[in-house]
Amino acid sequence: MRITRTGGGHGRRTATLATTVLTASALLLTGCSSDDDSDTDANGNITLTVADFGQFGYKEAGLFAKYHELHPKITVKEETTANEQDYYPKLLQQLNTGSGLADVTGIEVGRIKEVVDTQSAKFADLSKTINVNDWVSWKEKQATAKDGTVIGAGTDIGPMSLCYRKDLFQKAGLPSDREAVAKAVAGGWEDYLKLGEQYKKKAPSGTYFMDSASAMYNAVVSSSSKQYYDADGKPVYKDSPSVQQGWNLAAEAADKKLTQGLPQFTDAWTAALRKGTVATVACPAWMAAQISVNSGDSFKGKWDISRAPGSTAANWGGSFLAVPKSGKHAKEATELVKWLTAPEQQAAVFKAIGVFPSNKGAYELADVKNAKLPYFSDAPIGQIYAEEAKSIPEAVLGAKDGVIKDTISNQINNMEKRGTKPADAWKAATDSIDKALG
Questions:
Q1: pLDDT digits 0-9 by tens, 166-197
Q2: How far, in Å, CA of 354 to CA of 242, rounded?
Q3: In the beta sheet, which residues pair with residue 259?
Q4: SS (HEC) of 119-141
Q5: Is 72 helix (H, G, I), strand (E, B) or coil?
Q6: Are 350 and 357 in contact (CB under 8 A)?
Q7: 316 near 158, Cβ under 8 Å?
């Protein structure tokens, strides 16, 4: 997980989560920026640079230091951009000019289709280095070009769950046990809204059932294989059943005042978590870190995690590591990527910051399989997320998934906060999207 997510995937800011204990020292966004290019010194020692965004967790898990122990002649330096929205344009510029690229570069899932379609020739083919079958079935397909070239090795994914305040549920007369909550929303996100109406009737003063209707919208769309594009690369968001369902549910939530109307990761959103005014959050795996850090110690044990509404698994988020061909040490960089995305290393990152592995081999390792979150009432997240991850449908990705998602989300926010009528908001969204798509 990167704690800055944009585009059709992540939403990461700056927070970390240990699966055993949350510590203040883990909240620092680490990364090492260097003005030196990757090079070899007179003794044959080389430096590999890894460019990424937000927080990939390798520093926190001590993996760069461990790699140096295993390979004494290789030092790994990380160059981190806090916000993926700033990172990606720079990456495209470097690819287009052929200069300034790191030895290893991160790519967010909302960008991977565009990179695969337009830039794959500039990346090393990892298909002979990694076994793509080690990953959940749909993950490596996202980074595979039409000619079979695999340009990225999967890091994390975002299997969906529902995070909720069990103390607020109790005060509102709702079931609070995680299995009972899962049963209450088993019929899908429609059931989730019905639960919200029940909550509203006896809601503790100043609280809201959900933080954001746009977050719920993203969760709904993420559970479908058909989202914004069809298999031929044609934008079909206007007729997409999942988009229509998500939009209608979001409009209903806004109309019934079930949402506090807070775009996620804004100052107002983090303040609401700190004040305890939000009862539920659509919760991909990486979201738990956001909630625990921003809610603070006073709400530890009051949050819990249940399975996501409905019977269809969903994924929201995920990234890749890729190796530009222009690097001076592409062979060594490829081996580093293979090691960083192996089960043991993905499990170590999960333990360090809570991002869920995409490599299936990690699911049987103790640090994943037995993982519980004390902050969330010891929720068995290793089991919850692994079960979800194995049944997530393969989604068709498009070049401008991120643009479409963000534009629609902005208009959902307008329905919540400005009272914009759904028809007007939809027209504004589609006009803006069509202009962006050309």
A1: 999 999 999 999 999 999 999 999 999 999 99
A2: 28
A3: 210
A4: HHHHECCCCCCCCHHHECCCCHH
A5: coil
A6: yes
A7: yes
